[in-house]
Amino acid sequence: MRIKDGTDGGIINRVNRFVDSEHLVPAVFLVLSFFAWQFSGFSGAFVFNQVLTRFIRDGVLVLSLIIPVVAGMGLNFAITVGAMAIQTALLLVINFQVEGATGILSVIFLGVLLSVALGFAIGHVLNRVKGKEMITTIIIGFLFNSIYQLIFLVGFGTFIPVFNQEIILSRGIGVRNTVDLGMYRNTIDKLWLLKIGAWEFPIFMILVVLFFAAGIYYLLNTRFGHEVKAIGSNNEKAEVSGINVNLIRIKVIILSTVLAAFGQLFYLQNIGMFDVYTAHLNADVISCAALLAGGASIKSAKIRHGILGIFLFHTLFIVSPQAGQNLFNNAALGEYFRSFVAYGTIAFALIINIKNENK
Amino acid sequence: MKNYLKNYKIQTPQIIISFFLIALICLAFILDMDLVVLLNESLIKLVMNGILVLSLIPMINAGAGMNFGLPVGIIGGLIGLCLAVNFRITGLFGFVMSLLFSLVICLFLGWIYGLILNKVKGREEIAGTFIGFSFIPLMNYFWTLVPFQNREMLYPIGGQGLRPKISLENYFSNVLDDMWLLQVGSLEIPVGLFAFYGLVCIFIYLFFQTKVGRATIAVGENEAFSKLSGLDISRIRLIAIIISTVIAGFGICVYSQSYGFIQLYDEPLSMAFPAISAVLIGGSTGKKAYIFEAVLGTYLLQTMYLLTIPIANEILIPELTEILRTFITYGIILYALLIKDRRGNKQ
After folding, report:
1. Per the count of CB atoms within 10 A, which of A320, B111, B188, B209 is most buried?
2. Does residue B346 form part of some domain?
3. What is the pLDDT confidence band of residue B341, given thresholds at 50, 70 and 90?
4. ipTM of the complex
């Protein structure tokens, strides 16, 4: 993609700097989403409101990926484990019929506790597979998914006593496919809702996501953050300079898992319906693709990549089925395009990054 | 191979699976299930899934890791099957033609796949996973837009786009399963099916006896040394990846004729993981794999699945089979990733 340096440096150098993948990928997404939006026929305000909803829904999940990337561990596909942790907490609390603020607080408390424990375990596993973290996190995510299913589809009603009959399948064993979160739905989304014409700004939730972003930014500039960056750029060097690499890596994964748990909590309360067995399934792929769409790579990621990426990726995500319907008279084609963009972005980033690394 | 069998050590996962299998057989016996019928079925299941598992061997031995990009080869085979059905070629001839079509397509797909994997040496597993994942939605366009004419494959309404599940009943379902069926009492041995399985095994065995095959193993064992001795590593890896892809294409053809349907669209998405877990159960480390391991692993795993289905139904939780299946699949892959790396560090 790079243009050869010519004699008249100035402009070409500037173009050259712009055409690296950090800018190229977001630019491609920008062009694609613009055209898809044009063909979809949606109004600007509709798309904007939808994207902003996705921003508060998926924001923290995407942000939870940043620290592991900075630590040189690649994309953490095991954020689904954090998502399952908070879902486990949620189901337990619903089962014990704890309601209101106590309910929410106990969900958060239990969820964080579980994510710390699971993050600790995943961190240990990842320390034994250095260089193969990403494939391992994918497998860990899938493995936990089956354990999660085992607990809620088989364990509930056999080993775990059921107190809330509403969430149980009629056969008495296993949790239903969907659990209504009516009492939690949109409780904080509509807080400080600013309306300008057809444009809606849920100020409070935007601030919450930005608060998490600021927190991660701050963390990366503390002593801990510098150590994370050090092990990200060179493992051995960091070891020599007295950093306990394995410990930092475990902390990084714990942090990522806890953040993912919060992310999934915001996601669920925004949707309001809890698909027990599917809500967490694509959290990893969608979040990773969004982060990469913003210009991050598997070696470097910044807050701005995450935030920009959510806007670009989800614009494309929202408009492409309708664009497919209008262009080819077949909404399914837009759906396929969505999946292709999600998986393809990750595949592209992996191939380009690893290729450059091998050189 | 002889040497290998002498040195064969039974490892923890095999012990666990074997015990589990014995327990299941006892349970099946207590529940008064027909064990001969189960045995017959287990033989078919072995070959049905076995060739997909065998397809992993060349890539593992070339040092390109476990082929998480198996969907690439599977899709090549699916196109071959669809072409044969589209031209309405029936019977054994139809099946052979589907193999030939998929051979051509998989040669091409494997070549491209190999070129990409050669650029991501050392990280083929994660790259392969996402190459496979992203190839599937891309191919969904193909399935939707391809101008095939056979009404039996198309959506009944609209007449455009292939069905997600195409029946092979009028074409070549079970042609291999029923070929040369040997009846011994109530025991049925599908000799034709086993002959085909044997052919693929012999092909892989012979491949590793050739000069290129030996070079493949050398590259897998020690890349730096092979480079010094003047081997063209990229070319050898490319050959191994192409062979893996072609056998994967054959694998899905055999799978589909046993199953009786061609499954398109998102179906290949999660087919790589069970195949990989089978070769690992057989005792492979994921760095080197033998034909024996692939056969043993497939048989253990498939028989176990076969036994869990009626037992799970008996205790009224039918989902249990699927959950257990995924649990074992991913558990064993994670185990292999961990073990493999520990060995790698020691060297």
Report:
1. A320
2. no
3. very low
4. 0.88
Using one digit for the tens of pLDDT, what is the confidence trace for A170-213? 877 888 888 887 766 666 677 777 777 777 788 888 899 999 99
Q: Are B85 and B150 in contact (CB under 8 A)?
A: yes
Question: Quick check: is B99 in a domain?
Answer: yes
Per-residue pLDDT tens over the stretch B84-124: 999 998 889 999 999 999 999 999 999 999 999 999 988 88
CB of A344 within 8 Å of a chain B CB? The answer is yes
Q: What is the mean pLDDT of residues B188-213?
A: 92
Alpha carbons within 13 A on the beta-carbon side of B307: 24
The gap between the terminal CA atoms of chain A, to the nearest Å, is 16
CA distance B134 to chain A (A): 5
Are the beta carbons of B126 and A130 separated by less than 8 Å? no
Beta-carbon contacts of residue A97 (< 8 Å; ≥ 6 apart): A163, A164
Q: Answer whether B175's CB lies under 8 Å from B253's CB.
A: no
**Segment among B242-251, B303-312, B333-342 with least mean pLDDT:** B333-342
Domain tally, chain B = 1
- Kindly indicate the confidence band of residue A21, based on its pLDDT and cuts at 50, 70 and 90: low
What is the span of the domain harbouring residue B52?
2-336
Record: contact B137-A336, CB cut-off 8 A = yes
Smallest Cβ distance to B144: which of A125, A332, A350?
A: A332
CB-CB under 8 Å, B120 with A350:
yes
Does B334 sit within 8 Å of A143, measured CB to CB?
A: yes
Name the closest residue on chain A to residue B116, using Cα atoms. Answer: A351
Which residue of chain B has the CA closest to A134? B126
Separation of alpha carbons A253 and A79, rounded Å: 9
Closest in A139, A145, A333 to B333, CB measured? A139
- Least confidently predicted of A207-221, B120-134, B176-190: B176-190
Nearest-Cα distance to chain B for A111, in Å, is 23
Q: Which CATH class is domain A22-173+185-353?
A: mainly alpha
What is the enclosing helix (H) or strand (E) of B302? helix B291-314
Decide if A336 and B141 are in contact by the 8 Å CB cutoff.
yes
CA distance A345 to chain B (A): 9
B314 vs A contacts (CB less than 8 Å): none
Taking residues B150-165, report their average pLDDT.
83
